[in-house]
Amino acid sequence: VTARTLEVYHVQLLRCPRLSIKAFVKSLCDIQGVPFKPYLQVQFSIAFDLYLDVLSRIHGRVQAALGHDSPNWRLANACPCCLYHVEGEPSMHYQMLGTWDGNNSLKRLVRNKSTENVDGGDVPAPEKSKEFEDTRVAGGDYYLTREEVDAWSKESIKAAFGDQVAVDGEENTCEEQWKNLSKEVTAKMWGVYEETGVFLALCCHSFVLLIANMVRSGELSKYPLPVLDRLLEVIGKDIAMGYDVGCGFGTTVSRSPLGEKAKELGFTSLVGAFHGHAHGRLCQLCHLATYKPDIGIEHLEQCEPCFSESNELASSTRHMSVFHRRQAIARYCYHHDNFEVYSRLSKFLVDNYKQALEIQQTRHALAKTMNDMGIPSTDTFRQWLADEQAYLSSLKKEPLEETLQMEYFKKLVKLDDSEYLSNATREWIQYTPDNISQAFTNADQARRLETQRRHAIKNHDNLKKEVHVLEMQLGIKTRWIPGSAEWERTKQLVSTAKFQRALDKLEGLIIAWLFELTKLNMSRTGYKLRKHIAQALKTRSQAICTAVASYNDAASELGCPQLTWEEVLDYTFLSDFELLRDARRDICSEPWAQPAGCLALNQYHKLVGSEVEITRLNKEIRSLVTYMHEESAYVSLKAEEVRKMDPLLAVQIQKYGWERGRCKDMHILRLNKLARMDGFTGSLTPGRGALYSKIQGMMATETPPSSPNNHDNNKDAPPAEEDPDEEEEELVELVTVLRVCGD
């Protein structure tokens, strides 16, 4: 098998991860005009394995020659916009923005031998893996080892620190909506899988930071905790990460051994804009990126598009060995970073800049809205958020006294009913069992009534004891009677609780209905799944109608406005339901509860975020320009330096430089177009980055010293104008070189 053929398959595999070796070998057989034979697939697989090993060794030598082989170098330099710092750049509140999440598509099946009994007994022997022991380690510094992850398990933390720290956070109001906040769901997974997925961390530009394998479990907190530990160790302070359960994870971090370190380094756990729709309004006010002005307009949802692309790997990695699965995922991530994300990096920056400028154009509209609503200053919006947060915080839990009073009211109602039933059965007491049989022609009916009588009397006595205990706790000396002030007030509280339970059920049905409707219209949803979802939607619609009816019954008891089917379908956010929660206080008159006020509040935060976004983008654009300028110069100088001793290694260094260097002209073209737009306030002039001093040192050793007249006296002179003819000749020469490289 020629190296050229292996290279063709390797490139095609990275572009189309679903392409199998069998399909490629069959296509080769068709081209050569020979029948396919299974041993050809085996031979090609062995050759491709060796080819990847050669590439890995070459890559290691290139990294060593460039000085990129230090521990965690790739992580510290993963993104040129986030992590390539330039002298004199403005300081931001958050040094790096990112996101992380778990993906259960990249599972790997357990490959065990058949179970045999021990010594012919009934006890089965432990299952052993069919795989040959492979001591090779793949993944490089993309992966966290299993030992690093297991060190942050609940058992390991308790063994090391005792009970003074806890991995699990306190009770979270969003736990019912999110499976990866539920301990019962995340603690277990189907036994047929060894690796149940991956936990991935990305920067806000979608460059891969770290990967952790999820092993025989769901998305436990032991996966993001070691990732956070590594990020804090390598990148340092002021990191903000978006997570679909960022609210619960922030509490988990504060209670874990990482709590003090994360607090000192300014780590912030947030909820992304997309997943924020399924969080309660109080959670949104505290953790949603929209209400954090220092974030800009970033949505912190880069994991979902990345998973959509990487899911192509699932079919090929499902039956791989441990080594080959990690190798395939790591090589995919390397290609994803250098050939996909980096090539569209300038487009990402330009699009965000245009979006921020468009938001800036709404400043006058916001000022007009503020004038119409009588809002004196933007400080009012911050006060609205504080008022809404205080109001919703008061609804998190009913006061203990009110809870006891409602329980006392329910017991009194039950006691009254049981007393009526007990009195109704007292006339049976005069009968003995024999007389009962005579009184009732049916002996079974007589015994059943006697049993009911005994149960009614016993239940009445038990309720008397429970009512007495509650009276002692509440300090009630005179028992409430129907119609009294205490009775009516507590009856109102019970009706409120019934109302809120009906609202909870309706809310859950609507959100599930919305998610299923979104999935139904999503691309790549199979026919059978579409039919299944359509049937579920039909059933869900009937359940929603029933829930609306129950809600309206509960609302009528409190005098609250009722809902129609059309109004319910317009509720697309959980925050819409939050305003209906409290029936004891009318908040419709509050400005932050009115539609116009909500729109103005959101527009204000978008406007503030756009200002921060432009400042951040100006910094990132200059970092990218400086990185491209210095990286290309450094790689070229290093290749010339190595060429004297190892010409073949110098060629590989040049090829490594072209992985990202080929996109330089495209990036500069896009950024130049942006610079000509009205409102652009950044600079495309390269600054001095991390490689500047190295480049100067290499140039000083290779370039003969020039006279002072040629260097010192002309260092401030403007650059000479370029001749258009020379530019055209250089372009023709560049095209020729590219064609030769392509051939």
Automatic annotation (TrEMBL):
Q: Which intervals of the chain form a coiled coil?
A: 446-473
List where the protein spans the membrane: none
In terms of superkingdom, the source organism counts as Eukaryota
Q: What UniProt keywords are attached to this protein's entry?
A: Coiled coil
Matching entries from Pfam families are given as: KDZ (PF18758)
Entry keyword annotation includes Coiled coil: yes
- Where in the sequence does UniProt note compositional bias of the Acidic residues kind? 719-731
Tell me the segments the record calls region Disordered. Answer: 699-731
This chain's protein is named: CxC3 like cysteine cluster domain-containing protein
Q: Which organism is it from?
A: Rhodocollybia butyracea
- Taxonomic classification, please? Eukaryota, Fungi, Dikarya, Basidiomycota, Agaricomycotina
